[in-house]
Amino acid sequence: MKKILLVSTLMFLIGEPCFCWGFFAHRAINYYAVFLLPPDMIPFYKKNIGFLTDHAVDPDKRRYLLAEEGARHYMDLDHYGTFPYDGLPRSWDSALRKWPADTLQKYGIAPWWLPRMVSRLTAAFRMRDAGRILKISAEIGHYMADIHVPLHASSNHNGQLTGQEGIHGFWESRIPELFASDDYDFLIGHAIYLNAVPNFAWERIMESGKAADTVLRVERELSADTRPERKYAFSDRKGQVLRQYSEAYASAYQTRLLGMVERRMRQSILAVASCWYTAWVDAGQPTLPMDNSTRIMDGDGKEQRIMDSLWKSALIRGRSCTN
Ligand SMILES: [Zn+2]
Asked: 158 alpha carbon to ligand 1 midpoint, in Å?
């Protein structure tokens, strides 16, 4: 926990933009999603819950390896006008007929990418390939959770256009780290079958797009009502002064947001479990392999090692987004 806090603080100091739920929240979302699965799935997922949580941030790590990875985590909906964005095709092929691929990449492709991953998971279930099932499940957990973050659906993703730099990490990292373990309720119910994963992904990112204005406005108002010395907390670490949003300020923000962060975390958990469940049903509800899953990283071991090492060096340089 100490390490998590230190790194998030460093990031805040350096003022780099953030792109994703924090490390803590991504792990928690994948973890709690396991308990929403039906009896035929839960033993396999529970047995591998360590893998699912440990690899919840792999897609972020891959951003240092693969240029096109970043676009899979967000969509600047406001680039396409205003809600309900009628001019924005919901299908990738239709969008490609309107704009070149690099333009689409530039403004983010999250709701097009997520259904593709769910199709891959269905294929992995059909093959009963434990390694692929787990790897893709962990990554679906990441992408689906990102879609639920309001600032992942706005071009003002870190408040950089409104003088609110740092708000991204504040909403998605600092607040869950401070309050989720003790105050949030993650007893949610059961995974549901999604009749149309693409529609579901679009619905969720549209909700995020609508909430982005609230996320920014409420913080602006709170900031105006708060004396500067109460907004931030300072600490000394190895001779370096660290600054982060104070706990009191975070608590007040959470209250004014009427529990939005908890609500979006809960919705993420249900959505992740529902994607896993839907892929399994679509694959014909195969019996899941319960043998030793040490082969999980076979074939991907090299990529994983490179990703981890690039990630670590980005952390040292203070360029990581997910602490
Ligand atoms: Zn992400």
From this structure: 14
